[in-house]
């Protein structure tokens, strides 16, 4: 059988130059696969799927927006991560509003999960589909758009699609498998690219939902209050708060967070605005019980807590930034609201804040009657109204006694039960500490207060995860150290402050505290060191405190350090007769501590010869604080003594004595009596001065600073010399107080007394010792010129 001959036809590929093999294909990457599927999703959104047409095709503006995004993706050289691509698809969905993001994500994830195979070919309808004019379908189309297409066959997008399809058709099965595997890895890869820093940024994990955002806010609020150095930078916190505002509108606590940060940034108007917005948003809350909602037919109920606690927080802001009149009004409003709603917790907090504010305003201490200090009305109606307010407060306090089981009825819901219990336990602990403090049970010379240490730890919370009990303990301890300093008990203050600082350790539930309690204890420790003349250790401690409490992070605590630093530097420079430096230190106190500024500036004016200005400054300063008034009278008395105005000096010492008798300050009587003795000594009345000063020997050892001790010893020495008795023991004690050139002028005064004693006509003539004293005086005068101004101190 002859062989069958097959006639070969015309090879069109050879004729046309093998276009399928030689054409330049588009390299396929995971990003380009995603672009291809996004184009398919947009095409289906425009025309519809299968026989179901789209009722809302793209108009000219929407097509321009979609193709602008597609062109930017195609022309991008670098790969785009899947997270970024989802952001871009979400942006298109927001602009086009046709479930583009949903359909694209579903198609891509089905491909990644293996539910579908990779197919980069468009159906014929993509090239041939045209929308016929139909009244129900094409209501948005004009007459010029009778035949609506998706894209032009001459466009760059069309050519790019053809190149991708050609590259896909000539890819082997192994190559398609590799593309699918790479696409799966691309979807599961975590990558952050610059796109995420633009619009619709990827939210940080800590705030990507409302629950975690609230948790982050609570954690940052706690850190800012307890340990600001552990908190995020304030600028970053504000950026995150702005994101939460936009993305989680149900998180009203973000306004409270902003208020706290703005206080740290010293922006009170913005803080008050944020606080008001917080309480405005928290005025309403969803009804917790379904039965209550059915009974009341209300899904939302009002929350009166904002009316009670809002004025307290706003009043605190006003008090912190010096507007204490407004703070007084706000605290009074909170007390009234708490009385109307029978909220004893709010009533107690508002009364404490009102008392603190009145102390800052130099008002009566522990005043419970609500009154406006700017208005003084002594008529009978005013007294009756005050008594009514006091009676109402006492009734509420009696009904909510912390020792009575009826306190449980104060809770508004079951959730407040433990919070109320923890608060009352902490409050009772604080009251025990204050009671011990006021009764003086801590007083033991050169010893720590064992009884108070027991009182501080007498009540312990079973669970103190938020360190509420520890905060109350530190608060009471800080108050105690300040009271010890004010009473002249410097040894006890140093021991108590050191104990509070040493026990400030980091725990699992709470970091190391950096609150005002710690900084107050720290500066009181510095004051106690300065009281014995240990300036080197005091300044080292101040440097350590400045590192722990930087001004840009914690300015509320830093101001205590600034006050302490300027006071101690003033004291040191004043004893060295460096008055120009003292004026610099005084100016820094003008806004932070007005009383300390007035006392020290008047002292400088008096020392430099400006007597009338010094006296006028002291008399014009309005101070109703007990110890402040006593100090002003003593300052006027010392100035009068130094200038020989003994009548004025006697008057002010008498007034200071009246105050000292009626106070609990342990050193008050000693300070006034010592100045009386100094005045009598300058009036050449050594016998009377000696009788008064000799009775103070024990109090000097217990309550005197090294400056007071030096003045007392030199006064006693001079009294004895003027009476013909041996003063050298007291001169020796005075010398021990001012070693290492602490007070060169006082050393010159001691050398003067020694020269008088060892003069040829003195009590103990000795030419060698007199010569030595004269030489030492000359050396000190060369190094530290100036006279001793001990009478002014």
Radius of gyration: 41 Å
Low-confidence stretches: 132-148, 191-200, 362-416, 437-463
What's the architecture of the domain at 582-792 in CATH terms? Answer: Alpha Horseshoe
Number of helices: 37
* CATH class category name of the domain at 582-792: Mainly Alpha
Number of strands: 4
Major pleated sheet: 2 strands, antiparallel
End-to-end C-alpha gap: 141 Å
CATH topology annotation of the domain at 582-792: Serine Threonine Protein Phosphatase 5, Tetratricopeptide repeat
How large is the share of residues in beta strands? under 5%
Secondary-structure-based class equals: mainly alpha
The CATH superfamily label of the domain at 582-792 reads Tetratricopeptide repeat domain
What is the averaged pLDDT score? 77
Strand order of the largest sheet: 1-2
Helix content bin: 55-70%
Tell the overall outline: elongated
Describe this structure in words.
This protein has 793 residues and is mainly alpha-helical. Among the domains are: 30-202, no CATH class; 582-792, Tetratricopeptide repeat domain (Serine Threonine Protein Phosphatase 5, Tetratricopeptide repeat). The chain has 37 helices and 4 strands. The strands form 2 sheets. The chain has a two-stranded antiparallel ribbon. A two-stranded antiparallel sheet has the order 3-4. The longest helix has 24 residues, at 416-439. The protein is elongated. The protein starts with 11 loop residues before the first helix and ends in a 10-residue tail after the last helix. Residues 132-148, 191-200, 362-416 and 437-463 have low confidence and may be disordered.
């Amino acid at each position: 059988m002859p062989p069958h001959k097959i006639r070969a036809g015309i090879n069109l590929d050879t004729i046309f130059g093998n276009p399928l093999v030689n054409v330049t294909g588009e390299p396929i990457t995971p990003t380009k696969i995603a672009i291809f599927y996004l184009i398919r999703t947009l095409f289906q959104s425009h025309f519809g799927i299968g026989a179901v047409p789209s009722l809302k095709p793209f108009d000219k503006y929407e097509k321009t927006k979609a193709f602008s995004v597609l062109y930017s993706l195609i022309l991008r050289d670098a790969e785009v991560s899947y997270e970024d691509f989802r952001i871009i698809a979400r942006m298109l969905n927001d602009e086009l509003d046709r479930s583009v993001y949903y359909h694209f994500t579903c198609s891509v994830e089905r491909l990644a999960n293996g539910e579908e195979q990779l197919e980069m070919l468009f159906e014929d309808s993509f090239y041939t589909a045209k929308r016929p004019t139909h009244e129900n379908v094409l209501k948005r189309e004009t007459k010029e758009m009778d035949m609506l297409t998706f894209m032009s066959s001459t466009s760059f997008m069309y050519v790019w699609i053809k190149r991708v399809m050609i590259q896909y058709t000539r890819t082997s099965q192994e190559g398609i498998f590799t593309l699918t595997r790479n696409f799966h890895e691309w979807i599961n890869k975590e990558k952050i690219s610059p796109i995420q820093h633009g619009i619709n940024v990827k939210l940080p994990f800590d705030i990507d939902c409302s629950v975690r955002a609230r948790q982050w806010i609570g954690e940052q609020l706690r850190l800012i209050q307890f340990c600001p150095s552990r908190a995020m930078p304030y600028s970053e916190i504000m950026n995150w708060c702005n994101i939460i505002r936009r993305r989680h509108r149900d998180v009203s606590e973000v306004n409270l967070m902003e208020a706290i940060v703005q206080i740290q940034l010293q922006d009170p108007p913005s803080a008050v605005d944020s606080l008001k917005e917080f309480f405005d948003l928290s005025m309403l809350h969803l009804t917790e019980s379904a039965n209550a909602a059915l009974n009341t037919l209300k899904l939302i109920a009002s929350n009166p807590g904002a009316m009670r606690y809002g004025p307290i927080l706003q009043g605190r802001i006003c008090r912190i930034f010096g507007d204490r009149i407004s703070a007084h009004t706000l605290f009074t409003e909170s007390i009234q609201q708490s009385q109307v709603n029978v909220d004893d917790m709010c009533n107690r907090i508002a009364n404490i804040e009102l008392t603190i504010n009145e102390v800052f305003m130099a008002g009566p201490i522990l005043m419970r009657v609500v009154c406006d200090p700017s208005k003084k009305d002594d008529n009978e109606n005013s007294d009756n109204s005050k008594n009514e307010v006091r009676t109402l407060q006492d009734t509420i306090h009696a009904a909510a006694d912390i020792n009575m089981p009826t306190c449980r009825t104060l809770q508004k819901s079951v959730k407040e039960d433990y919070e109320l219990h923890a608060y009352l336990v902490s409050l009772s602990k604080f009251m025990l500490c204050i009671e011990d403090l006021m009764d003086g049970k801590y007083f033991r010379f050169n010893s720590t207060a064992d009884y108070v240490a027991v009182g501080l730890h007498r009540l312990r919370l079973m669970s103190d995860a938020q360190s509420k009990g520890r905060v109350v303990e530190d608060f009471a301890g800080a108050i105690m150290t300040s009271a010890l300093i004010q009473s002249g008990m410097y040894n006890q203050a140093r021991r108590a402050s050191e104990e509070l600082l040493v026990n400030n350790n980091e725990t699992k539930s709470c970091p190391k505290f950096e609150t005002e309690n710690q900084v107050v204890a720290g500066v009181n420790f510095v004051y106690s060191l300065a009281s014995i003349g240990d300036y080197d250790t005091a300044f080292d401690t101040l440097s350590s405190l400045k590192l722990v409490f930087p001004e840009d992070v914690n300015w509320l605590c830093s101001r205590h350090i600034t006050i302490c630093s300027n006071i101690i530097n003033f004291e040191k420079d004043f004893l060295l007769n460096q008055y120009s430096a003292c004026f610099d230190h005084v100016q820094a106190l003008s806004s932070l501590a007005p009383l300390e500024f007035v006392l020290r500036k008047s002292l400088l004016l008096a020392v430099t010869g400006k007597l009338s200005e010094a006296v006028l400054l002291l008399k014009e300063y309005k101070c109703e604080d007990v110890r402040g008034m006593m100090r002003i009278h003593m300052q006027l008395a010392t100035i009068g003594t130094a200038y020989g105005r003994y009548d004025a000096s006697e008057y002010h010492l008498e007034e200071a004595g009246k105050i000292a008798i009626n106070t609990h300050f342990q050193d008050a009587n000693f300070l006034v009596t010592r100045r009386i003795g100094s005045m009598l000594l300058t009036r050449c009345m050594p016998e009377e001065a000696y009788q008064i000063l000799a009775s103070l020997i024990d109090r000097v050892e217990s309550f005197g600073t090294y400056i007071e001790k030096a003045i007392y010893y030199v006064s006693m020495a001079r009294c004895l010399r003027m009476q013909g008795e041996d003063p050298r023991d007291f001169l020796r004690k005075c010398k021990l107080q001012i070693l290492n050139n602490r007070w060169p002028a006082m050393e010159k005064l001691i050398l003067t007394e020694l020269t008088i004693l060892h003069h040829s006509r003195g009590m103990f003539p000795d030419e060698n010792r007199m010569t030595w004293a004269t030489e030492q005086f000359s050396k000190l005068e060369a190094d530290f010129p100036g006279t001793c101004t001990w009478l002014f101190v």
